């Protein structure tokens, strides 16, 4: 059976055309080199060298074999590099699910940075409802989720990527538009548009409990799955909403965002299954944390 060492022996002899010098370069003695070249020729069924007492010359078959083995060895070296990159998480495949609301905050920056840092990783991004993200991670349908912290983290690992204040969004002509900061007590008579608890329990509970702290029981008029739809409906005059601050980046002319007194803060986390050993997860988490740190820094400076 032909082994890689046979190819190295052959190429060294082909380049030196001298058994003694080739053996010296390979750090073996001349007789084993001669035997291995003979084994190679027997396996191939062709003569690679013309030998005489005075010189060694490549045959036509040997010249062809020399050219082709360069490709073989280059492919093997690339395979070694690929294996090492995959083991280090710098190459491979990674499936990431994200909430649509994070498309207005950190997901674009995370994606750009990771794609630039690890171009050999095939990154698949999928927009998914928070309700389904944790299940996708637990079932193995996705490697990482960018989401609000799930209620049940059994078997999951998570790390906080980003924290942002909640803000109130008002429709055109609203009576509170002139207020610099909105007190939750002033929202007692308002109709709220809110995400259903079954879709995003962390976000729903934060909004509801925040209002209760100020003696306000939210009058829920509409329950809508997507944050951007909620903001759009506020712009149509169907109610008010408390949403993550990054939703301002929708830049609708029909809505106005106002800060809240003692505004609550929502966390966006990266979640992955504890026994998922895809090495790309580690590089993604590290890159995502770096990216979100830059986003937070830029927000502070602005």
UniProtKB/TrEMBL annotation:
The keyword Hydrolase does not apply. InterPro entries: LysR_HTH_N, LysR_subst-bd, WH-like_DNA-bd_sf, WH_DNA-bd_sf. Keywords: DNA-binding, Transcription, Transcription regulation. One of its GO terms (cellular component) is protein-DNA complex. SUPFAM superfamilies: Periplasmic binding protein-like II, Winged helix' DNA-binding domain. PROSITE patterns: HTH_LYSR. This is LysR family transcriptional regulator.
């Amino acid at each position: 059976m032909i082994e890689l060492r046979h190819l190295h022996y052959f190429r060294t002899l082909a380049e030196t055309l001298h058994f003694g010098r080739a053996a010296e370069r390979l750090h073996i003695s001349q007789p084993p080199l001669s035997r291995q070249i003979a084994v190679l020729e027997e396996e191939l069924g062709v003569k690679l060298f013309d030998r005489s007492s005075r010189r060694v010359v490549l045959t036509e078959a040997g010249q062809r074999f020399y050219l082709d083995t360069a490709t073989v060895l280059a492919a093997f070296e690339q395979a070694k590099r690929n294996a090492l990159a995959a083991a280090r998480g710098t190459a491979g495949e990674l499936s990431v699910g994200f909430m649509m609301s994070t498309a207005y905050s950190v997901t674009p920056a995370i994606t750009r940075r990771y794609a630039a840092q690890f171009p050999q990783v095939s990154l698949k991004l999928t927009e998914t409802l928070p309700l389904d993200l944790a299940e996708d991670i637990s079932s193995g349908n996705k490697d990482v989720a960018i989401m609000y912290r799930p209620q049940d983290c059994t078997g999951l690992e998570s790390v906080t990527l980003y924290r942002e204040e909640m803000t109130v969004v008002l429709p055109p002509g609203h009576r509170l538009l002139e207020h610099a900061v909105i007190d939750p007590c002033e929202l007692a008579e308002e109709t709220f548009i809110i995400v259903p608890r079954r879709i995003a329990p962390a976000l729903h509970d934060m909004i509801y409990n925040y209002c209760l702290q100020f003696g306000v029981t939210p009058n829920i008029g509409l329950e809508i799955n997507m944050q951007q739809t909620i903001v759009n409906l506020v712009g149509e005059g169907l109610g008010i909403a408390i949403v993550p601050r990054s939703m301002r980046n929708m830049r609708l002319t029909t809505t106005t965002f106002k800060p809240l007194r003692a505004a609550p803060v929502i966390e966006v986390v990266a979640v992955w299954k504890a026994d998922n050993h895809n090495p790309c997860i580690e590089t993604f988490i590290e890159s995502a944390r770096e990216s979100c740190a830059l986003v937070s820094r830029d927000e502070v400076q602005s």
